[in-house]
Write a structure and sequence with these properties.
Structural class: mainly alpha
Distance between the termini: 41 Å
Largest sheet: none
Helix content: 55-70%
Order of helices and strands: HHHHHHHH
Number of helices: 8
Number of strands: 0
Radius of gyration: 23 Å
């Protein structure tokens, strides 16, 4: 019975895809909205990276929703993982190679992470990608020295301020121009570092929030007690 249901589902899905494909003109791009964005995004938003224009301007509310989902997932994972009991000692520090490598990689990862965040409106990258690198910069130190760890209170404050900054820029645009997260300020010259209005500020807030959430989540994971054998 299960195999029959799988066959019926696969057949129905294939039929649906064939019907949709038959309605498309051969050789014509089906995403007409995407083509229009490609034509006008550089002039309207001022960002050389069209993907950032879509994420932070044309569908910025969707990006805010993605941040909310990530926040909810981090909270749920933290509740499930819990915290190490006070009577359980922390894991020992890593070896010399791991500790020395963590000390060398930490500043490098910070520079790379912020570079990707601040250049997200110019080149591929942005807040999500740079935020993951920032989280890795701090988490590698936790792996090398678990006893030091990260201050969850500080991480929560940074995460909250970054999220408030993202929403604040959106509300500024809403009250000033009637459109939530519409790029404000001068667009500058296309391709320059200082360009695209408030998009670099949104990318910075996004990167810091993502980095803080993931760093806190990975720290909670490393702080979880191993199951008793």
């Amino acid at each position: 019975m299960r195999n029959l249901a799988a066959i019926l589902f696969t057949g129905g899905l294939g039929f649906l895809l064939l019907v949709i494909a038959s309605q498309l003109d051969f050789g014509q791009p089906p995403m007409r909205v995407g083509q229009e964005i490609l034509n006008v995004a550089a002039g309207e938003v001022g960002a050389a990276n069209i993907v950032t224009s879509v994420l932070l301007a044309y569908r910025g509310i969707d990006t805010l929703g993605e941040l909310s989902i990530l926040f909810a997932a981090a909270i749920a994972a933290g509740l499930v993982l819990g915290h190490r009991r006070a009577d359980v000692p922390a894991d020992p520090d890593g070896g010399f190679i791991l500790r020395a490598g963590a000390d060398l990689l930490f500043p490098l990862l910070l520079v790379v992470g912020f570079y990707i965040i601040l250049h997200g409106h110019l080149t591929p990258g942005g807040g999500f990608q740079g935020g993951v690198i920032l989280a890795a910069a701090f988490f590698i130190g936790v792996l090398a020295r678990p006893r030091e760890g990260l201050n969850h209170a500080v991480i929560s404050v940074i995460e909250g301020l970054a999220g408030a900054g993202f929403i604040g820029v959106g509300l500024w645009a809403l009250f000033a121009d009637g459109a939530f997260l519409k790029p404000m300020l001068d667009q500058g010259t296309l391709g320059d570092l200082v360009s695209a209005g408030t998009l670099p500020l949104l990318s910075l807030a996004l990167g810091i929030k993502v980095g803080a959430e993931l760093a806190g989540l990975m720290t909670s994971l490393s702080d979880t007690e191993a199951p008793e054998q």
